[in-house]
Amino acid sequence: MKFSRRDMLVSLLGLSAASACRRGSDRVHWDGEFVLENASLGHKLREGFRPTAEKTVEVPCAILGGGIAGLSAAWDLKRAGFDSFTLFELAAKPGGTAIGGQSGSLQYPWGAHYLPAPHGHQPDLLELLRQAGSVESKNETDRTRYAETHLCADPAERIYFAGTWHQGLYPLLGASSDDLEQYKAFYRRVHSLVNFQDKDKRRAFSLPMVNSSDDPEIRKLDDLSMAQWCEANGFSSKRLKWYLNYGCRDDFGGDLESTSAWAGLHYYVARIPPGEKESSEFLTWPQGNQFLVDTMLRSIPSKNLRCNALVLSVEPYSDGRRASVLVHEPRLAKTTRFIAEKVIFALPSFMRKYLIRGFEKLPAYHPEYVPWLTANIHMRDVPEAHGFPLAWDNVIYDSKSLGYVVSTHQIPRHRGETVLTYYLPLSDLDAKAARRRLFSLDYRQACDVIVSELSRCHVGFERLIKRIDIKRWGHAMVRPGPGDINSSTRLMAQKANGPLHFAHSDLSALPLFEEAFSHGVRAAREIRFGVSL
Amino acid sequence: MNTEIAQHKSQPREVNTTAILFAVLVIAVCGLVYELIASTLASYVLGDSVTQFSTVIGVYLSAMGLGSWLSSSIKKNVLSRFIEVEILVALIGGCSAAFLFLAFSHVSAFRLVLYTVVVLIGTLVGLEIPLLMRILKDKYEFKDLLARVLTFDYLGALIASLAFPMFVMPKLGLIRGSLFIGLLNAFVALSLTFFFEPEFKKKTQLYTLRTQSFVVIAILVAGILFSENLTKWSEDELYTDNIIYAKRSKYQRLVITQSKGSFHLYLNGNLQFSSTDEHRYHEALVHPPFSVVQERYQGDLNVLVLGGGDGLAVREILKYPAVKTVTLVDLDPQMTELARNHPLLSVQNQQSLNDSRVSVINDDAMTWLARDENSSRRFDVIVIDFPDPNSFSLGKLYTTRFYRLVKRVLAEHGALTIQSTSPLLARRSFWCVDETVSSTGFKTRAFHATVPSFGAWGYVLASPLPFDVPTQLPPNLKYLTPEVMKSMFVFPKDMDKVPTEVNRLNNQVLVQYYDSEWSSWY
């Protein structure tokens, strides 16, 4: 399928046709490329690539996938003194969608880039954050105090609205009294849900989500889309709906129509500690969640890691007890059969149907994933613009992109060169079509999308660009559609099957660090304690 | 049709067609560029570009309508009237940007001036095309006339709308851009006096118009040549005295002004000191922490100054024989260079930065403090003299994170002072600094001095250990006595402590306090 430049800008950004008519950027005077492309390796599988193993190796535990779930499992196993595992990762470095990059002294994220500072009972996550140096409190009874330099520096957010930048995420300028009343009414709903407690003293929405209430009143929110919930509650304000839609896209890559109301509300409610009004603060680092990946990697010996390794299949081994994992390493041009006592399948669940064979009663689980485009724009200087000064998160009203975060924001008194990380979830198309669209873009078209939008809200933006690198994530985030939270298949998919254990954020249907982490730790514990938790 | 008349009509077409249509093109370009310059300038100084662009364009277009309507009242001498209009457009339009900048810096009703200028230019530009068409009406068929003039008028608009963002703004800027465009108008006026020379019955009229054109061209060329000074001059109006030094460094704009008996330093337009009363400010800043330290510690002193690139605090510090080293960390090398070498400034600071005990480091104070190699250094006295927290970037130098970094390099017996804005004009901001410092484990005592150039000015004195109100002073001070020093720690009711939040990197409450408090005064 071929698109004209204008069609593409209009469809990807939702720009009016007029504003898409930026002067054609035939002269792209910066360097850059599509980076971290390893999908083709994965696609080999679908094309029926089946080499035979030259060697057979026995391992006690194989972890498949080095995203947050797989790394968390490895981290937890290592923490318990269990270090005879091997983690296989397709990419050159582990980290999955939390991966970051570096150029000179500047670091920047490629995907996930913050973590709401945990409140409440999350001892494992707090332990990780303690190892990361993000926790300052001396004793356990204190309310957790986080390191000032790890908390997102102020100003955290600004929004481009009506020709200028404003503080915060909700455009107050020119809002009607009805707009404001609906905005307040929405937060009244949120705050009443924040303080909700069921008969077992569980919160309505928790992190990880498994600790959320199963009260039917709360759970039935999953029957509705966020759009239906807005309509049922009389939320019709364009601004409020934009704001809620932004929230859905920011966390889940879905929009109001395709996101479950349970998930949509979880985004706002779970972050606010009980009895409080404000969301807990964000922990963030120049390299994004790569910082947490690095923290985990500090305790995982490199001998336990095998990157550039394509898992071809997982099958029951002939002894009926163990699993046989076929791994191809293209760099070494070799294929190895690993016979593992235990396997943690920490890959996205849609891979099951391509990889797992011969296990009985393994439920199919195929949630929807949203493709994303992220770009790192290397700038000679911070971009200038009218209105409120540069913040960490810079959001553009009524745009299909989520704007950009500034990687140097956490470096106090940083000046000069910086890297802006631009995020565009392809949320409004059917996921398959969106993926096809994403991978049909050439580099210049993709730059066009990014630069035409950011030029509109800055002065002389293009002149400051040194380099634009772009990552296309085919399956960036699992999307919690209506019904996905209450789905029994989702729960079944978490259950261990013989030597096979499962860990991934998609098992929560919420693409969040906390979910991936808790599934990883759970899978590690299942192995350590020999049970299915 | 009479062949003679037809020939008469076609004659000037052969001679002047290109020239006249070129003139239409040029005046169309100029007309639109003036409109864009006024809109850009208005959004530049007033903000809210959407409003400024809409209102300026609206006013401009309606003034053009007014001009067109007025054109009917011009009954005779249409050609010389037209050339006069051109000369006026050249002068008023050409000087508009410089004039408006100047007006903004010292006219309170700037909007009135702005719209008057816009109406004036718009009216004159509105006169142009109707007059031009009347000049040409005898030389073309009406349908041809209309078609050609409008074609080139619209083409001119296209050229202007492209030239403005691509050439005028980036290459010339607003002031020089408008002068340059004015020149184009003036050249059109001048050229027309040559093309239509035969049409002028009275030669004196022709010469007057030429002289006027040359005068305007001379004014505009002079404006372009001296546009650097023009920029300075329009800024001059922001300062009350003569500017004797003005330079933009990588970080800020440094300006020194001089009046009869005194001189003043401004950074980004904010007064840093006046030579008449800076001794009050600097004695109060420097001596209290020395008193605290010397009451409990008799050894050599290593002193750290953060900010204070003017060398005036260092001058006070060097009054103590016990001072062994002074390390001054100031961001801007231009500032410390000025303090060392400027004839007035280096006399005022008594060559303090050239003293062998002093080492100057040009680095960001926060970055410098966070460097590993500096974390093991210990200073006995630290003097912190930063600009007020009027931006998120400066606000970081007043956060708990910053004071923890400071604490790391302060000896246990040491003490520090921090300039902390005015407790009278920005009461919550002032006490927020005190609250923030004490939240990082310091004992603090806030105090204030009267510095006429600034008003009531505040400081925070802090030490890791408890301390009393300081009493000791070196000899040869101009402001402080032990009694005065004691009185600085007493706050009148309207400046006394108010509860505030703690300023952290992740909330920057101080910048918000400061912004709301100072905006209520100015």
Walk me through the topology.
The complex is a heterodimer of chains A (533) and B (522).
Chain A: H1 5-13, H2 39-46, E1 55-64, H3 68-79, E2 85-88, E3 100-103, E4 106-109, E5 114-116, H4 123-131, E6 157-161, E7 164-167, H5 177-194, H6 216-219, H7 226-232, H8 238-252, H9 261-269, E8 282-284, H10 290-299, E9 305-306, E10 310-316, E11 323-329, E12 334-345, H11 352-355, E13 369-379, E14 393-396, E15 404-406, E16 418-425, H12 431-440, H13 443-456, E17 465-478, H14 488-492, E18 500-502, H15 513-529
Helix pairs in contact in A: 1-13, 3-10, 3-15, 7-9, 8-9
Chain B: H1 3-46, H2 49-70, H3 78-106, H4 110-136, H5 142-195, H6 203-225, H7 227-236, E1 242-248, E2 253-258, E3 263-267, E4 270-274, H8 278-296, E5 301-307, H9 312-317, E6 323-329, H10 333-341, H11 343-348, E7 358-361, H12 365-370, E8 379-385, H13 392-395, H14 400-408, E9 410-419, H15 427-439, E10 443-451, E11 455-463, H16 482-488, H17 509-519
Parallel strand pairs in B: 5-6, 5-8, 6-7, 8-9
Antiparallel strand pairs in B: 1-2, 2-3, 3-4, 9-11, 10-11
Could you walk me through the main structural features you see in this protein, from its secondary elements to its overall organization?
The complex is a heterodimer of chains A (533) and B (522). Chain A has 533 residues and is an alpha/beta fold. In chain A, the strands form four sheets. In chain A, strands 1, 2, 9, 10, 11, 12 and 18 form a seven-stranded mixed β-sheet that branches. In chain A, strands 7-6-14-15-16-13-17 form a seven-stranded mixed β-sheet. Chain A has 15 helices and 18 strands. Chain A is globular. In chain A, 28% of the residues lie in helices and 20% in strands. Chain A has helices at residues 5-13, 39-46, 68-79, 123-131, 177-194, 216-219, 226-232, 238-252, 261-269, 290-299, 352-355, 431-440, 443-456, 488-492, 513-529; strands spanning 55-64, 85-88, 100-103, 106-109, 114-116, 157-161, 164-167, 282-284, 305-306, 310-316, 323-329, 334-345, 369-379, 393-396, 404-406, 418-425, 465-478, 500-502. The termini of chain A are far apart. By secondary structure, chain B is an alpha/beta fold. Chain B is elongated. In chain B, helix 1 (3-46) runs parallel beside helix 3. At the A-B interface, loops of A face helix 12 and helix 14 of B.
